Amino acid sequence: MWMADTPVALLRAHAKHAPWNARGLAAHATALVDAAGLRPTNASARATLSARAIRFYVAHGLIDHPEGKGTAATYHYRHLLQLLAIKIRQREGQTLETIKVELRDVSGDHLERRVAQALAPALGAGADNAVAHDDDAQATWRRVAVADGIELHVRDDSVGRHANAITAMREAVRASLGREDIR
């Protein structure tokens, strides 16, 4: 296996999408966790990530403080790793208190390896290439119907091109359509 094909290297490709605002960070993390097929074990693990949830995690010391304040706050790769670790451990049945203790003593490299291992199926071979070729004018796109008037566009060389990832994304969008707070 080439170094570029390791789960850690594929996860690092997502750092190129940083910085994020809270909503963008939530969406990016949700897509990765859902694509990995990690099944929630309780209601808190099922809860869709939101900017409010991220602010809660920051306020309770689960995620480092962002750069800036309010709507100017920006989140980076370490924040993504911390958020992914929280959602992965929640879906494994751990409480936030337990997760907080675990995250307190973990180094950045160890956190990155742990998250990459858990998300390896979602990262898929070629994720780093898909990010590197975002500006490729010759890319082929697939249209995926979600609901009446709503569709996803998925590039055939992206990490989300696989059937299980497309299904997870489509279902996540469908689930969000039923939420009162975003109508």
What is the residue-averaged pLDDT?
A: 79
Anisotropy-based shape: globular
Largest sheet: 2 strands, antiparallel
Number of domains: 1
Number of strands: 2
Going by helix content, strand content and strand pairing, the class is mainly alpha
Low-pLDDT ranges: 125-136
- Helix share bin: 40-55%
Calculate the terminal CA-CA distance, rounded to whole Å.
46 Å
Helix/strand order: HHHHHHHHEEH
Strand content: 5-15%
**Structural Rg:** 16 Å
Structure overview:
The longest helix has 16 residues, at 108-123. Helix content is 51%, strand content 7%. The protein has nine helices and two strands. Helix 2 packs across helix 7. It has one domain. It is globular and about 45 Å long. It has a two-stranded antiparallel ribbon. It is mainly alpha-helical. Strand 1 and strand 2 form a beta hairpin.
List the helices and strands and how they pair.
Blueprint: H1 7-12, H2 22-35, H3 43-46, H4 51-59, H5 77-91, H6 96-104, H7 108-123, H8 127-132, E1 141-147, E2 150-155, H9 163-177
Antiparallel strand pairs: 1-2
Helix pairs in contact: 2-4, 2-5, 2-7, 5-6, 5-7
Offer a concise description of the structure.
The protein has one domain (3-182).
List keywords for this structure.
mainly alpha; 9 helices; globular; 183 residues
